[in-house]
Amino acid sequence: MTAGNNVPRRVSAVIRAHNEEQHIGRLLKGLDRQTVKLDEIILVDSGSTDNTVAIAETAGCQVVHIAKNEFSFGRALNKGCAAATGDVLVFASAHVYPLYDSYVRHMVSAFDRDRVGIAYGRQVGDGRTKFSEARIMSKWFPDDNVWDQGHPFSNNANAAVLKSVWQESPYDETLTGLEDLDFAKKAITRGWKVAYVADAPVVHVHEENWSITRNRYRREAIAYRRIIDGADMTLLRTLGLALTNIAGDYKEAIKMHRFSSNLVSIPLFRSAQFVGAWEGFRTPDHLAERLLDRFYYPPDPRTRETSLEPGRRIDYSDDTTTVRRQKQ
Fold first, then answer.
1. The whole model's pTM is what?
2. What is the pLDDT of residues 250-279, one digit of tens each?
3. Using an 8 Å Cβ cutoff, are 323 and 98 in contact?
4. Which of these, 303, 299, 295, 317, lies nearest to 130 by C-alpha position?
5. Is the Cβ–Cβ distance between 213 and 273 less than 8 Å?
6. 3-state SS string over 262-286?
7. Helix axis angle, 265-282 relative to 210-227, nearest 10°?
């Protein structure tokens, strides 16, 4: 890709995965259909036992392995970034997929603006998304582009960084989550800007049961307490936030005529969210490292979509489990 100042850019995608055979093919298909082609795709696999690696290799990805007992989100990203040769590194979770063929173009163009070192894109749910989580996505990922948001919120499920910014200060490998928030906070102190690209939406597929949702918010709360000095959540505040969000969800569900279908799912999701957060804020620092394996490898569960400047909608109706990436 050529940047706004006519300097050629090499663009790499870095995908973290563990047993994602149900989703990885759709993501790779979406990346293959982009109007701006990626120069390479790096898959960082943390011990998959299904067909994830085979699907990625068939699609032309370079696979980097990380042992299960070495895994953290930050360490996996650092391995992927080190292996990538791009000037711009596009991050995607293995269970997301882009909505439009303009996704890479919009994400990478954020770096045409002065001192933008980090960009992250919009996320939406699909029919599998819990009602409450869809509301969280709508709040976190609004419809308007912001080229200098002035705070460190970011989300590496759909993001991009300049490799030079990563080289200055790699991801913290000891955090149990929110490595993107920590990375952005440090980058801002060095004079970099964080951009939000609403024009680069992905569908983020979450099919998590109560315990996995609770686990996610627990490890993020542990990390948040480390990253933000003085952060705390009292029991009274936890209960108040839980009840406020449940009431807000019910009000919105009634307005959308979806109350009966979400009568149980709303309090279940919100209780998992706030029980997990409460536990995370109470967890002593010395236990965080011991909890990594449980956090990242829990038991397997059995279990508004617009664009400000859309490209052509990607057709996923003919999905197969593999997709061959066009050679550059």
1. 0.83
2. 999 999 999 999 999 999 999 999 999 989
3. no
4. 303
5. yes
6. HCCHHHHHHHHHHHHHHHHHHCCHH
7. 40
| Residue spans of the chain under pLDDT 70 | 1-8, 285-310, 319-328
Tell which CATH architecture fits domain 11-204. Answer: Alpha-Beta Complex (3.90)
φ/ψ bin of 116: left (φ > 0), alpha (ψ from -120 to 50), beta (otherwise): beta
Diameter of the chain measured on Cα atoms? 56
Residue 216 CB contacts under 8 Å (≥ 6 apart), including other chains = 177, 208, 276
Residues 6 or more apart whose CB falls under 8 angstroms from that of 242 comprise 270, 271, 273, 274
pLDDT of residue 204: 95
- pLDDT of res. 98: 97
Say which amino acid occupies 229: D
Q: Give the Cα separation of 191 and 179 in Å (integer).
A: 19
Write down the pLDDT at residue 66. 94
What does the domain layout of the chain look like in residue ranges?
Answer: 11-204, 210-296
Question: 84 and 119 in contact (C-beta within 8 Å)?
Answer: no
